[in-house]
What does this fold into?
Amino acid sequence: MFAGKTTRLIGLYNESTVDINERIVVKPLLDNRYQANKINSHGGLQILGHRISKAEELYPLIQPSTKECYIDEVQFFTPYIIEVIGEMMMNGIRVIAAGLDRDYLNRDFGSMKALKNLATERIEVSAKCNVCQQEAHYTYRTNESPDLVLVGHNDAYEARCETHWKEGMSARNQV
It folds into this structure.
């Protein structure tokens, strides 16, 4: 969280030389932050997009002219997203996906491990630790919700370095 994944996705979209009508942009229906019909970064950048509940809902959006597909928060889709992405790639569609590779318990998040294996290029970004401002690769949940998936931002999560993530988790486990 807070590493700039969506900002990077939007940047790649804006840098594309592919006609706007030849691009698809989607995010999970589950992500109800900000505006529903847009992909939104925490910093306020936006692009128009579709919200879909399942990976197979991408198929009706694909046109013969589609050349690129941008997917935000890909970790929230079921494992079927890997098959859909693979099929798009085999049909010559460039897929750019952004998501968290680890959940707040530091486990592989959704299909991200499989997606990273499928990727032809990987761009990894990091945040700054909310405690010490060092490089952060961990997501620390600040509330006690038992749900694995809890959509939120700084109201529910902090970016943390390994030391401060472990410190927070250790304190949580002692309660």
Summary: The chain has two domains: 5-125, 128-173. Residues 5-125 form a domain with the Rossmann fold fold (CATH 3.40.50.300). The longest helix spans residues 162-173. The chain has a mean pLDDT of 87.
